[in-house]
């Protein structure tokens, strides 16, 4: 980035490290899938940390576990509406669905019973399951957002049973290795930051423990580096590297539940936290463990993301810092619009493009990149959706009102005659009497 941008980004990082009294902090900005800036303040073992220094990710771990669950869904091994009991039978909360566990709406208790799991040596799945035999459900499943670390311990067990291995082996083989994230591990390897608590009334430090969380590890065990977390930030933004389809990651970024009611500034998707900030819709995750704070967040619309990691239990506004880094980068160096170029299209689909009418309301059907259609009203706001091909003359709605619905093309002598979309009939002319308009068309036609 420009020298002036670099200076502004570093100044924002330095302000946070100084004001919040952070032993060390690292950050990065990602644009179009690559790390374009990184910075550090403070020290690790007497020297500034760098892009390869490991910090604990905390709950960012959950997003990687969620990605494996979505791979299982895309493979047809599970449905997000499946009750947990179908895949991990015998628990006291088997009616909660896989999708609810991913979005923290399954009603489960937030923490595992017993000693605070983040500072305690964890037990195995049998021990965790036994501890949840009574009073594990705190809210009716599906009724509200209730953040549950336990829910991701459970999803780690689900992954292990489907893959026949431990949860981390699945994450490593299916997510980390394909993305080149070779420095992301359940325990630090090589140079890493020690986690500290900073005394609230004096400039002294207390080392924090970092035990293995056992069956709760899928909720927050992993350590990573600026380089690796930058790759994950790009993944969340849509640069999936073949690990998941971009539309699956887009589904993970969709709002499943809202955390703060009518204000709707924060919510949760499928393994991803969501933030609305000054017109931006951001996706990623924060993380905290004793001695560590971390954040990765990205704006899919602009292609800019940011990450931050610090070795302190509390203090810095880690999410605010990451959002500020995105804002500084985009305001200092706004991206040029993508250069338009002609694209390869199936010319046989051109006959479907153009003006269609739902009753008297005109819509436009356009071919868009990726071999998809976009249906939008000609005037004003209305029901707009994108569609991807399902098969001959069948298209699946991806978003908006028609998400999940099928658009079917009907033909007369090979020529498109009308579209059927969730029982709504679209015709080339308003209320075409030759089409199967529900309720029929007045035979006297239009009149003054």
Explain the layout of strands and helices:
Blueprint: H1 3-19, E1 24-31, E2 34-42, E3 55-56, H2 60-74, H3 98-102, H4 125-131, H5 149-163, H6 167-179, E4 196-198, E5 205-207, E6 223-224, H7 226-236, H8 246-253, E7 257-258, E8 266-268, E9 273-277, E10 280-289, E11 292-299, E12 304-310, H9 318-332, E13 354-358, E14 361-368, E15 372-377, E16 385-391, E17 394-397, E18 406-412, E19 415-421, E20 424-427
Antiparallel strand pairs: 1-2, 1-12, 3-6, 4-5, 7-8, 8-9, 9-10, 10-11, 11-12, 13-14, 13-20, 14-15, 15-16, 16-17, 17-18, 18-19, 19-20
Highlighted features:
9 helices; Beta-lactamase; AmpC-like; 24% helix; single chain; Lipocalin; Beta-lactamase family protein; 448 residues; eight-stranded antiparallel barrel
Unreliably modeled segments: none
CATH superfamily of the largest domain: DD-peptidase/beta-lactamase superfamily
By DSSP (H or I, 4+ residues per run), the number of helices equals 9
CATH level-1 class of the largest domain: Alpha Beta
H/E series: HEEEHHHHHEEEHHEEEEEEHEEEEEEEE
Structural class, by secondary structure, is: alpha+beta
Rounded mean pLDDT is 96
Largest sheet: 8 strands, antiparallel
| CATH architecture tag of the largest domain | 3-Layer(aba) Sandwich
CATH fold-level label of the largest domain: Beta-lactamase
> What number of domains?
2
What integer value in Å does the Rg equal?
A: 25 Å
Query: N-to-C terminal Cα separation, in Å?
Result: 64 Å
Main sheet strand line-up = 2-1-12-11-10-9-8-7
Using the alpha-carbon principal axes, give the shape: globular
Strand content: 15-25%
Organism: Amycolatopsis acidicola
Pfam family, one: Beta-lactamase
Protein name: Beta-lactamase family protein
Domain Beta-lactamase-related: 11-316
């Amino acid at each position: 980035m420009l020298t002036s941008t670099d200076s502004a980004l570093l100044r924002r990082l330095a302000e946070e490290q100084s004001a919040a009294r952070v032993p060390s902090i690292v950050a990065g900005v990602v644009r179009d899938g690559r790390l374009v800036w990184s910075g550090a303040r403070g020290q690790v073992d007497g020297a500034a940390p760098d892009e390869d220094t490991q910090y604990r990710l905390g709950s960012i771990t959950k997003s990687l576990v969620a990605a494996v669950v979505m791979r299982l869904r895309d493979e047809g091994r599970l449905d997000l509406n499946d009750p947990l009991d179908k895949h991990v039978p015998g628990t006291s909360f088997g009616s909660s669905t896989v999708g609810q566990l991913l979005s923290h709406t399954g009603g489960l208790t937030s923490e595992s019973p017993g000693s605070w799991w983040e500072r305690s040596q964890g037990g195995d799945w049998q021990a965790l399951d036994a501890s949840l035999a009574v009073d594990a459900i705190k809210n009716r499943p599906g009724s509200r957002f209730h953040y549950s670390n336990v829910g991701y311990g459970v999803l780690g067990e689900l992954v292990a049973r489907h893959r026949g291995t431990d949860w981390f082996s699945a994450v490593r083989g299916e997510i980390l290795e394909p993305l080149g994230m070779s420095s992301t591990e359940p325990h630090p390897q090589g140079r890493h930051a020690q986690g500290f608590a900073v005394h609230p009334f004096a400039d002294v430090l207390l080392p924090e423990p970092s035990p293995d969380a056992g069956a709760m590890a899928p909720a927050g065990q992993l350590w990573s580096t600026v380089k690796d977390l930058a790759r994950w930030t790009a993944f969340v933004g849509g640069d999936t590297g073949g690990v998941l389809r971009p539309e699956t990651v887009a589904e993970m970024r969709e709002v499943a539940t809202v955390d703060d009611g009518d204000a709707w500034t924060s919510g949760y998707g499928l393994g991803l936290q969501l933030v609305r900030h000054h017109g931006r819709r951001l996706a990623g995750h924060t993380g905290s463990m004793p001695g560590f704070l971390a954040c990765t967040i990205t704006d899919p619309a602009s292609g800019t993301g940011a990450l931050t990691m610090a070795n302190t239990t509390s203090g810095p506004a880690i999410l605010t810092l990451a959002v500020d880094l995105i804002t500084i980068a985009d305001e200092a160096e706004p991206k040029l619009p993508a250069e338009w170029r002609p694209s390869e299209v199936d010319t046989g689909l051109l006959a479907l493009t153009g003006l269609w009418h739902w009753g008297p309301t005109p819509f436009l059907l356009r071919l868009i990149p990726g071999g998809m259609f976009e249906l939008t009203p000609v005037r004003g706001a209305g029901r707009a959706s994108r569609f991807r091909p399902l098969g001959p003359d069948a298209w699946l709605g991806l978003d908006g009102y028609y998400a999940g619905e099928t658009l079917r093309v009907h033909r007369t002598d090979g020529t498109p005659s009308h579209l059927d979309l969730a029982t709504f009939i679209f015709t080339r002319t308003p209320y075409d009497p030759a089409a199967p308009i529900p309720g029929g068309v007045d035979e006297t036609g239009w009149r003054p």
